Structure formats: C-alpha cells, structure tokens
Amino acid sequence: MQNDYVVQNTAKMNLDQVKSRQNATRENSEGIYAERKKLEEQVHEIEENEESIKMELETSQQLEDELTRQMESSQKWLEKEREAEAAEVRKMKIFTSVLLHWSRKKILSRRILSVSGKRWENSRKSLPL
After folding, report:
1. pLDDT tens digits, residue range 35-85?
2. Is 125 helix (H, G, I), strand (E, B) or coil?
C-alpha cells in the first residue's frame, strides 16, 4: 500500500509539474502573443507615419518648386523694371542737358540783346539831329 501511495504521490507530483509547466508555457505564450501584437501595432504606426512623412515631403517639394518659380518670375520682372528705369534716367539726362543748353542760350540771347540795346541807345544819343 505504501508503494501505491508513493506511485500515486509521484504521479500527482508529476502531474503538478506538468500543470505548472503548462501554466508557465501558457503565460509565456500569452506574453509572446501580447509582445507580437504590440510590435505589429508599432509596425503599423511606423508605416502610417512613413506615409504621412512622404505626403509632407511631396507637399513641401511642391511648395518649394512654386516659390522658386515665383522668385524667378519676380527676378525677371525686377530686371525689366531696372532696365526701364535706366532708360528713363537716360531720357531725363538728355532732357536735362537739352534744357540746360536752351537755358544758357536764352540767357546769352538776353544779354546780347541787353548789351545791343544799350549800345543802340547810346549810339542814338550821340547822333546829331
């Protein structure tokens, strides 16, 4: 009977060990499953972030291209404006030069007439009547 008890007790201990291993394996398996699920969620989140970053990069590139086109267009416009301004400055210099020349000529004409008029007056006074 004692032998039966030892066998029964050994079998019970073996069964308890198997159950304990099963529980440990189950807990380990559940931990691995939870870790796997967590990793899959992280991979999914990374993929979503990657798509978002790609879209932001594309949008940023489009904005940069548009700004570059606008800057180039503005630069061309500015160059044309500078050329037009330079042409106006040249015209103003010519106009100023002509005006200055005309003004000097007018002043000289007045002086000549003034001097000539005085001489005429003086010469008339000196003529015998």
Report:
1. 999 999 999 999 999 999 999 999 999 999 999 999 999 999 999 999 999
2. helix
